[in-house]
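Folded chain entry
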Amino acid sequence: MEDIIKLVELEKDRQNHGIELIASENYCSKDVRAMAGSILTNKYAEGYPGRRYYGGCEFVDEIERIAIKEACELFECKFANVQSHSGSQANAAAYRALMPNGGKVLSLVLNDGGHLTHGSPVSFSSNFYTFVHYPLDKNGRMDYETLKEIALKEHPDVILSGFSAFPYEIDFKKIREICDEVNCLMMVDMAHIAGLVAAKKHMSPIPYADIVTSTTHKTLRGPRGGLILTNNPDLIKKINSAVFPFYQGGPLEHIIAAKAVCFKEARKPEFVKYVESLMENTKVCSQTLKELGALATDTENHLFLLNTLDSFGITGLEAQKRLESIGVTTNKNMIPGDKLSPKETSGLRIGFAAVTTRGCSSSDAKEIAKLIYGFLSNKIKEEEAKAVVKKLTSSWKNIEEI
């Protein structure tokens, strides 16, 4: 027990004293953490509210109903499944609901920003379904005409959008029009932009997609878990069956309670201000890096890509390791047209969801950009860089206070 407690304390120190720039990470509130660590973890509740396979579910039934109601109100949709343990399992259930006998999915080229569950050869997705892919244009933006041409040629059952490393806004209306012309279904994985959609700072996919999947722990600032949304009364039945009993057993009712709290928090005006600050911080950092001479993308959401190979002569992996040595956490990432392997990559994915939650300002974001550029270009020494990290993090909230 003591060894685990010690490691948890070390992780807490790492989070408090480091600059977290991994775009898929965030810090949830004390209320969310209280639910995630509550006695609800003791309760088995296979099935759905009012239709459980265990007794004693009257209270967790009501909690799950609240979570469903809050999710539907937050995203302005008719139906929600809040039981998926993760975004990957949410995607698995969505595929099952849309293509129960297998089928063809048209998704983004993985190196251009797709997720593993969007057809990677190492994922279940490519083993159970046939995937074909559409590319981004030469500027790293969506090419809707090329998407349409490929869709008309391939006749997919589903067109999938929503990405893990795409810094621009997605026009879901255009994709819906392509789906209608091709006569196929539309699925959106909005795991990364769910918080922006909730705050109405990004076009919502809900009016256009047949199924929308998400995680709850990225820009939504909730517990780790998945979410599936739809407006189709027939599809929600298939979704529910795909989640349980097809892919999962007992739901995590403590996490579902934490999701309910997260959805409630995301409906507050403070959350909208948070998302506005998050997007501003991301834009300031990207712009400052470009002004300094680095090859960074523009951004219209919560993340951007930094080409470390052409900017500093080092791979994304090398840049990630170097920055981690001074307490700045990022992740190596493929960039459009990348010629290096996923183990090395030519760049970094940088996001401001976590540090903005702690209180990072736009002036801090500019200083972070200068720190990254200076350290990776060997103009700032390690001790000086660590001092900058210490100064910035000491002015922000501790994660226990969030």
User: Anything to note?
Assistant: The chain has two domains: 30-265, 270-401. The chain has 16 helices and 15 strands. The longest strand covers residues 104-108.
